[in-house]
Design goal:
- The protein is α/β, with parallel strands linked by helices and about 450 residues long.
- The protein has two domains: about 120 residues, Diaminopimelate Epimerase, Chain A, domain 1, CATH 3.10.310.70; about 290 residues, Alpha-Beta Barrel (TIM Barrel).
- The chain is built from 17 helices and 16 strands.
- Helix 9 crosses helix 10 and helix 10 runs parallel beside helix 11.
- The longest helix is centred in the middle third of the chain and has 18 residues.
- The chain is globular, with a radius of gyration of 21 Å.
Amino acid sequence: HFLEGGYQLSSVDLRDAKSPAEFTRRIKEFAAKLPKGRWILGGKWDHENWSPNNLPTARMIDAATPDNPVFIDRLDGHMALANSLALKMAGVDKNTKDVAGGEIVRDGSGNPTGVLKDAAMNYVNKVIPAFSFAEKLEQAQAATDYAASLGVTSVQDMSAGTDVAVYQELARSGKLKTRIYGCSPLSDYTRWEKTGVYRAFGNDWIRVGCLKGYADGSLGSTTAWFFAPYLDAPNTSGLASDEIPKIFDNVKNADKAGLQVNIHAIGDKANDTILSVYEKVSQENGGRDRRFRIEHAQHLRLEDIKRFGQLKVTASMQPFHLADDGRWAWKRLDEPRLKGTYAFRTLLDSGATLAFGTDWYVAPLNPMLGIHAAVTRQTLDGKNPNGWIPEQKISVEEAVRAYTGGSAYAEFQETVKGTISVGKLADFVILSDDIFKINPNAINKTKVLATIVAGKVIYENK
């Protein structure tokens, strides 16, 4: 989500707000700097940082934002808080119905509290003014500069869509520092098919041709789709983002058109369902090197783990999430379900391909934090010094390979990049420490001294 990350760099930062009072104060201070009518977006709040961990409400921020509509999302992007002004602009009130794949959170009287989950977020999203091309250029420039400072040389932008034109303009002006593999929504396969696109295309800097769909929401929003209910929300087992027959038809048709398909799946039922969809599509469409991906693959039944290798489905995972989720996931999931959580070790041992990323803006972009998380499995609260679910730890070499060669393979570029080899792209970083030799606990403190892309130094830490 590269452009969104670039936008967030200049928006209100709520990720580490430790209480509702601090949450409200930061919004008030940010709103005071804005002209009337300007939307406040982004935020990336996390109510799991609060005690008690109640969801925020519009009432908490209305007095601080009387003249600015607000729609600030949780850090996972699967629910967002609107103030009363934004709800009014969107026409959301007590009589507004929930939508399939989403939820309007309500109080005891049935009135919206301000929190909208997944598909229900579209009520407000559709009234937010679109960013101009110039604004998107600023966001992309901020994102590519920031990526360079962290040693990130390539990204797979799961929400690129038509914003590929923004990246093209940056490349034309010589300001793009990051190689882009851009994905469009899964439902866009008809547009690609009509234009005759049958595989990813582009150049070494910008390639497009993958499609991204959703099977469920997120654990933090209690919308990840499980076989059994949540421990702390026994009235729900999560949400399917769409009707499964519709997902199957979209995947089948996109695959038949020759395009790569990636599906977001977090809960165990979502993962099981998408693995079955992929298996059936492969059988019906015939054999080819399709490289289906599941984005996140966070919570897996043990019997489903081996299916990744058997079906040649890439597990595209973001290890930093475990350092965050490990603080509170035990409140939501019982011990048997936790056994298959971020199951890096078992996935590798069963023959799966791991492709690591960061899921920025949802998690920090810094790969050193992700490598540290995969190797140590320590949680942000410091309560798991020996690792959360430690049997799923992997080595530094395996984590680095997942970030580099594994991710290159996941976008059909393993012969072009992913290792420092003769004939491949000269993209690499110089680090302050040898992460293969230092204590793994210190990997997250490693700094980038220089970033080289296409043989040119694009960032130096001076």
